[in-house]
Design goal:
Elements: E1 15-19, E2 30-36, H1 38-44, H2 54-58, E3 64-65, H3 69-76, H4 80-86, E4 96-100, E5 119-124, H5 130-143, E6 149-152, H6 161-174, E7 192-196, H7 202-224, H8 232-246, E8 249-253, H9 255-261, H10 264-270, E9 278-284, E10 295-306, H11 315-318, H12 326-335, E11 346-356, E12 368-370, E13 376-378, H13 386-400, E14 405-410, H14 414-420, E15 425-429, H15 432-445, E16 449-451, E17 469-470, H16 480-489, E18 497-501, E19 507-508, E20 518-519, H17 524-533
Parallel strand pairs: 1-7, 2-5, 2-6, 6-7, 10-11, 10-14, 13-17, 14-18, 15-16
Antiparallel strand pairs: 2-3, 4-5, 8-9, 9-11, 12-13, 15-18, 19-20
The structure holds ligand BES, manganese (II) ion and zinc ion (ZN).
Function: Presumably involved in the processing and regular turnover of intracellular proteins. Catalyzes the removal of unsubstituted N-terminal amino acids from various peptides.
Protein name: Probable cytosol aminopeptidase
Keywords: Aminopeptidase, Cytoplasm, Hydrolase, Manganese, Metal-binding, Protease
Length: 537
């Protein structure tokens, strides 16, 4: 093949440092201090405002300012609360008041003339919840694009670790910037975030936050990679890199092995492409774990491009289908972080990778294939390819890996997006505890899910006249995301199973809070939060 080699300009995630020193004692061009609205300050902030006379805020007349406020007054001669009033600012979550600081001789000067600060930002924290901290972090990140170093006391003003973590994740995720294939790279995002006034104990929380955000960042990079570069073999190479970097076993099955071992779904979907399918397994063993430690299997849909196959998509819906491997990217992102987060359970990541193309040997609507567990399936629409590759992965996990639980992640159906839009993923599960744990992890991490039912009556939609089952709803029952979930469910047999349909949330159509337009890698944060809390017994 050979040909043109694309050279990407990579961008590194924002670095985060913890500094015991105060806001202005660390060198930075821009500094940011937290502010809270008057009405929430009483609950959100225990200590009185440090910057100004506490009566200014405590009286209920104006907002509160957090640590660092006094330094602004003393060193820069600013009156932040007065400025907020002038700007009509309230301190709601994500509100930013930007105050330029001029050099001496060019307008207003800093009081002692010793600071390099060019700008002061007041960052609204609303009700002081983790969600507000995440939102504030994202807004702050957007306000400082192109800045080298930002010093802030927002984290120092936080009440607990979950707020610090949410804030750091918000900043790092919102500064996400794609490496591009442009000959001249664009402006880099924020380079270093310095958390001033934070003691050493916080560094563990910060390390976890940056690990999670970097995993999410990495998964987003995989999602955005164009499909002329990424194919199943390319994904396998990335998995090898992850395994190498984090001391994990990686096992890749190529198309010959897949055919020989009976992975009929992967083979059928992959055969329309000149770039053959792969089943990739990444194995994480927690150090020193007992033999009977729970085993979590994560399976990701890895369609590196979904043209629809012979049931070809129209141009518009096809245009974004390089992102149809988001589930795989999420699984790979999660596996890249489990060791650093000290996850206590065994985790296997399975990536079912194939390119769905209408090539000369493509599968046809009405073909009958056999999945890994022996179930025969009548393929009725080659655009419902995700369930075919995932069924093999789930069946393989159940038959060979002795999983305690299987969770799959997939951009499976447009119907999930129709039902829930862009803020909630569709969650299905055969196990209430598992579903509740995932819902909670989703709330905590800012990746929200909504549980939908595995409706018994709808099973009849999957009847086939020639095979064990059909694979789409020919009875026109509606509920397309549910039908997709019902198809997958049978391959999990009696193993507790959950399915996350991220078709709606996998892409952001515009910048929104910590999300950046494009692939969101939805699920990395929620699954890591869930795994972190997963007991070893
Ligand atoms: N990858 C698509 C689902 C999708 C749609 C993801 C929009 C992200 C955004 C999937 O393979 C697909 O084509 N599903 C079909 C299923 C149908 C043929 C039963 C769909 O949703 O239309
Ligand atoms: Mn499809
Ligand atoms: Zn697809």
């Amino acid at each position: 093949m050979g040909g043109i080699v694309l050279d990407e300009n990579p961008v590194r995630p924002t670095a985060v440092e913890v500094a015991a020193e105060g806001l202005l004692d660390v060198a930075a061009e821009v500094v940011a201090v937290p502010v809270w609205p008057a009405d929430t300050a009483a609950e959100a902030v225990q200590a009185p405002a440090s910057g100004a006379d506490p009566d200014d805020g405590a009286g209920g007349s104006g907002p509160w300012i957090g640590p660092g406020g006094a330094e602004l007054v003393d060193a820069l001669g600013l009156d932040p609360l007065w400025l907020m009033e002038r700007e009509n600012a309230s301190g709601r979550a994500g509100e930013i008041v930007s105050i330029p600081i001029f050099d001496e001789g060019r307008g207003a000067s800093s009081a002692d003339g010793e600071t390099d600060v060019t700008r002061v930002l007041l960052v609204g924290l609303g009700d002081g919840s983790p969600a507000s901290y995440r939102k504030a972090g994202a807004a702050l990140a957007r306000a400082v694009r192109g800045v080298n170093r930002l010093s802030t006391t927002v984290a120092a003003g936080a009440e607990d670790d979950s707020c610090v973590r949410a804030f750091v994740e918000g900043v790092v995720l919102a500064t996400f910037s794609l490496g591009t294939f442009r000959s001249k790279p664009g402006k880099p995002p924020l380079i270093t975030l310095v958390l001033a006034g934070l003691g050493e104990p916080a560094s563990e929380t910060v390390r976890k936050a940056t690990t999670v955000a970097s995993a999410s960042w990495y998964a987003r990079e995989l999602v955005h990679m164009p499909s002329n570069v990424k194919d199943p073999a390319w994904l396998a190479e990335r998995a090898e890199e992850i395994g190498h970097a984090h001391g994990m076993d990686v096992y890749v099955r190529d198309e010959k092995k897949l055919a020989a071992e009976g992975f009929g779904g992967l083979v059928a979907v992959g055969m329309g492409s000149s770039r053959p399918p792969r089943l990739i397994a990444l194995r994480y063993e927690p150090p020193g774990a007992p033999a009977d430690v729970p085993h979590v299997v994560l399976a990701g849909k890895g369609i590196t491009f979904d043209s629809g196959g012979l049931s070809l998509k129209k141009s518009d819906p096809m245009a974004t289908m390089k992102t149809d491997m988001s589930g795989a990217a999420v699984v790979m992102g999660v596996l890249s972080a489990v060791r650093e987060l000290g996850v206590a359970v065994r985790v296997t990541g399975l990536v079912a990778a194939a390119e769905n193309m209408p090539g000369r040997s493509a599968q046809r609507p009405s073909d009958v294939i056999m999945q890994y567990d022996g179930t025969t399936v009548e393929v009725l629409n080659t655009d419902a390819e995700g369930r075919l590759v995932l069924a093999d992965a789930i069946a393989y996990a159940v038959a060979e890996l002795e999983p305690s639980v299987v969770v799959d992640v997939a951009t499976l159906t447009g119907a999930a997006a129709t039902a829930l839009g862009r803020s909630h993923a569709a969650l299905y599960s055969t196990d209430d505890t598992l579903a509740d744990d995932l819902l909670r992890a989703g709330e905590e991490s800012g990746e929200r899910m909504w549980r939908l039912p595995l409706v018994d009556d709808y099973r009849q939609a999957l009847k086939s006249e020639v095979a064990d089952i059909g694979h789409i709803d020919t009875a026109k029952m509606g509920g397309g995301s549910i039908i997709g979930a019902l198809f997958l469910e049978r391959f999990a047999k009696d193993v507790p199973w959950a399915h996350l349909d991220i078709a709606g949330v996998g892409r952001a159509d515009k910048n929104r809070a910590e999300l950046v337009k494009g692939g969101t890698a939805f699920g990395v944060r929620a699954l890591l939060t869930w795994l972190e809390s997963h007991p070893a017994k």
